[in-house]
Write a structure and sequence with these properties.
This protein has 217 residues and is mainly α. It has 2 domains: 110 residues, no CATH class; 92 residues, no CATH class. Helix content is 36%, strand content 7%. The model has no long low-confidence stretch (mean pLDDT 88). The chain binds zinc ion. The site of zinc ion (ZN) has 7 residues, from loops.
Length: 217
Amino acid sequence: MTRDTIRDHFVHCIGNGASISAWHDAWSDYGPLSIIISNRDILHAGFTREAKLCDIVSQNGWRWPSTWLGKYPGLSNIVPPTLSNASYCIRWRDYSGNLCHFLVGIVWNAIRTRADVIDWYLIVWFPQCIPRHSFLVWLLFGENLKTQDKLKKWEVGPNVVLLCPLCRSEPDTHMHLFFRCTFASRIWKCVKNNVQFSIVGDDWTDFVAAISSFASR
Ligand SMILES: [Zn+2]
């Protein structure tokens, strides 16, 4: 499966065509010719299975029989490549379609799974961010912190008392930990006044909406 994914990203720069297989290498956008043309026809036309690209192309075009065009109409879309004196090399096609060197970062960016862009990423990730803080906020956005309401579902043990360590009145949740807890809410109100957020509601959604407007600045 990974092979199928990366195959489209390898681009053969054919050079003089003496080092690239005519039938088995994907030197054109249509993939290896062996997918299109039968082995039997290749041999009947006088070529070998080991033929190189320079063996099937001349200055006047293709060396293969014109009858192939009737049998394999797809061949008419393949333009004969211009051979040069350069040597053969393989390049990597990045996510934007540009040819570049094979670097791990570029490869990962090209083949990684992509989801829709979320509107809060600039709140979490920005050039001056502290990675440890950003990671925790990222967990928070997905409500994936190990709060006690989650631990309870995991059956952490009958003798473990689950109470918010700040107010010790009830098990903490994401909402409790940041807004509902009596201790945390006092801090939150103090912070709100200091950063002139006094009109922002005591709710995660309200807070995100308020900060999103200038997160990109
Ligand atoms: Zn609490």
